[in-house]
Amino acid sequence: MCIDTGELAEKLAGLAHPLRLKIVYLLAREGRSMYLSEIASRLGVSRALAKIHLKKLERAGIVRSRIYVFEEEARALRFYELVDFKIDLSPEKLVIEGICDG
Length: 102
Fold this sequence. Notes:
Elements: E1 3-4, H1 5-15, H2 18-30, E2 34-35, H3 36-43, H4 47-59, E3 63-70, E4 75-82, H5 91-97, E5 99-100
């Protein structure tokens, strides 16, 4: 079985920023879905900045979002949660498994 370079590059690019790593760590530590404002507040950044990085993590398949509708309050909120992923990479693994274009 070969290593899919497209999928691997997408995951690595998604994680390639200190704030995105902090978001992943926060979601992993909390072990639950979190609302954008809560994530931003806990990390001490603006909602806009948190949203930019959450979108990048979502495109990379590292987090997913779900919209919850609160009818009694007439509003919908987007919550983010981690997707289970694993990155296992070493020079030896590349040589042993090889790569395939993704």
